[in-house]
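Run log // design_07
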């Protein structure tokens, strides 16, 4: 049976009455169709829905109903097929799906999907893919892995619980509510933009063990809900993206940005690779903005390293801009104790550059970080250099790097030091190395460390250990000579693990310490104490990207965040590839 709500107006008493009757709160003047199954035949797939090929059928049941006699039962007794039901709807931009769930048994869990189309893809896809697992935890899937939306116990067993999934018209995210309370967001499947939502489906989760059994009732479907969730991005306010560059060729992973005085104002410089994520290709592009990211101008003529695979940018205390190459190259005859480091320096705000080649020296022989190379005739060095350098008042530079000594089987995170303006470097310390930290699939070792001098004067580093795995943090109180044991980075009131790749870390001048992490999407965290002892929960700034980006402070509580539409390993690949910026403010 279908019920159609009349337009809902946001009056608290009325909203409570509607919720009590089994309807779902909706935006003002919108209508939601709610299905109760009271006139659908027991034992049959409800009208207007179907069983996808290869699946077992979910059918109407008279065993229980939320406030009536019947409901939709998704029961999975099979070891060879999942139980699934798909319900098509007219195509629309965004949607609201609401329902009551009674999980009678959940050895695995149950899945909730919104269906739709990706840009330039003809066939219908799973647009948003969510699971309620056997522990009552809600997670979302980005086409590669699962990420937590809400913790265990959010959806209890043997109890009716209302779940509401609200997708705004831009279809950038799915806002999830449980029992009328906002609990978190999930992103779309894949990294391409969505063009529409065309229905929904429910299913059991897996074929073994058997026994997933969930009843669904008062299933509502309606228009997009464009009202942001309460406190959904707090403490951040995130502006829409501004396109910096777009191309039919690959541009991705912006990783370097600085602000320089320019005329009577300031100029933002940003650099990004113009090739795939591999060790055999190279090339970078550069752009600038003179209005703090509202508009952008190509600046390839002033690119200090157009042929490099990638490079980092640092504004030095004397006003110079330092560019340091990501790749290093073994010095022949050095016993693999030295590697060439290309750098360039600008004394005029990035208008002109002077190229230099120095060396990094290690206390132990290295092995190449890759057997491949982007420079024919040269082996890659044992370490790559990532993120901006940290400069001391006396001009000493601290640079993050990761890679291998000859005996390493997993990545080693190091910090290097330069006392000659970034030409030559020596290893100051190993921050972390442990080949046996975890048996988790995808463990790579400590790498991609984002380094910052934080408010309490210590050096803080946040490190990746693998895609979709927890990040780790370490601290030095003696200017980088020794480091604390690396520990998992946790955030938010429930102290959830922070995942997973390419952290970007900056202390806003006079403001908080801000961290951005990638995969899934790009998420922001704030440490109000300025030193990284506590962190707010991760807030997604953008979902559909390669997961590598960089943040740049623009004020005490403002910054620019850079990302892409450039995941060249996605299927289909982006069309076009693009680089974007977003203005972000942090609440005081």
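design_07 sequence
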């Amino acid at each position: 049976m279908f019920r159609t709500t009349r337009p809902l107006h946001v009056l608290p008493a009325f909203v409570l009455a509607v919720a009590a009757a089994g309807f779902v709160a909706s935006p003002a003047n919108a209508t939601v169709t709610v299905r109760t199954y009271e006139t659908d035949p027991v034992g049959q797939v409800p009208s207007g829905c179907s069983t996808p090929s290869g699946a077992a059928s979910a059918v109407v049941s008279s065993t229980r109903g939320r406030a009536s006699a019947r409901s939709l039962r998704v029961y999975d007794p099979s070891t060879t097929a999942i139980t699934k039901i798909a319900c098509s709807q007219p195509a629309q931009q965004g949607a609201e799906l609401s329902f009551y769930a009674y999980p009678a048994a959940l050895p695995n869990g149950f899945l909730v999907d919104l269906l739709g189309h990706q840009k330039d893809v003809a066939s219908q896809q799973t647009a948003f893919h969510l699971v309620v697992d056997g522990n009552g935890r809600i997670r979302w899937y980005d086409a590669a892995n699962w990420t937590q939306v809400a913790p265990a116990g959010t959806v209890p067993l043997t109890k009716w619980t209302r779940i509401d999934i609200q997708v705004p018209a831009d279809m950038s995210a799915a806002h999830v509510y449980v029992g009328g309370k906002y609990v978190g967001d999930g992103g779309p499947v894949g990294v391409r933009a969505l063009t529409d939502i065309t229905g929904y489906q429910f299913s059991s989760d897996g074929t073994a063990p058997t026994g997933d059994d969930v009843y669904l009732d008062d299933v509502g479907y309606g228009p997009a809900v464009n009202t942001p969730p309460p406190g959904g991005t707090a403490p951040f306010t995130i502006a829409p993206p501004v396109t910096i560059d777009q191309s039919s060729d690959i541009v991705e992973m912006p990783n370097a940005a600085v602000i320089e005085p320019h005329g009577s104002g300031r100029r933002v410089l940003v650099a990004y690779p113009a090739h795939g994520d591999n060790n055999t290709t190279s090339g970078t592009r550069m752009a600038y903005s003179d209005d703090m990211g509202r508009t952008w101008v190509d600046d390839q003529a002033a690119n200090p390293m157009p042929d490099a695979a990638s490079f980092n940018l640092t504004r030095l205390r004397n006003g110079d801009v330092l560019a340091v190459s990501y790749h290093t190259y073994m010095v022949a005859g050095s016993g693999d104790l030295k590697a060439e480091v290309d750098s360039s320096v600008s004394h005029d705000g990035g208008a002109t550059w002077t190229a230099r080649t120095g060396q990094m020296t290690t206390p132990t022989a290295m092995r190449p970080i890759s057997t491949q190379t982007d420079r024919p005739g040269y082996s890659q060095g044992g370490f790559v250099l990532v993120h901006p350098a940290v400069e001391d008042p006396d001009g000493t530079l601290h640079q993050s790097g990761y890679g291998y000594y000859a005996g390493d089987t997993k990545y080693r995170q190091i910090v290097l030091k330069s006392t000659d303006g970034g030409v030559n470097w020596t290893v100051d310390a190993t921050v972390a190395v442990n080949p046996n930290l975890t048996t988790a699939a995808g463990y790579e070792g400590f790498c991609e460390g984002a380094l910052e001098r934080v408010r309490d004067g210590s050096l803080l580093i946040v490190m990746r250990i693998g895609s979709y795995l927890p990040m780790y943090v370490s601290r030095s109180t003696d200017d980088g000579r020794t480091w604390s044991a690396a520990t998992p980075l946790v955030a938010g009131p429930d102290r959830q693990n922070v995942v997973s790749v390419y952290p970007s870390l900056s202390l806003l001048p006079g403001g908080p310490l801000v961290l951005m992490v990638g995969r899934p999407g790009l998420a922001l965290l704030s440490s109000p104490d300025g030193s990284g002892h506590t962190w707010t929960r991760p807030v997604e700034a953008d979902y559909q990207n390669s997961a590598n980006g960089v943040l740049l402070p623009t004020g005490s509580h403002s910054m620019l965040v850079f990302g892409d539409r450039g995941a060249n390993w996605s299927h289909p690949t982006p069309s076009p590839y693009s680089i974007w910026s977003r203005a972000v403010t942090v609440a005081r």
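The longest helix spans residues 12-21.
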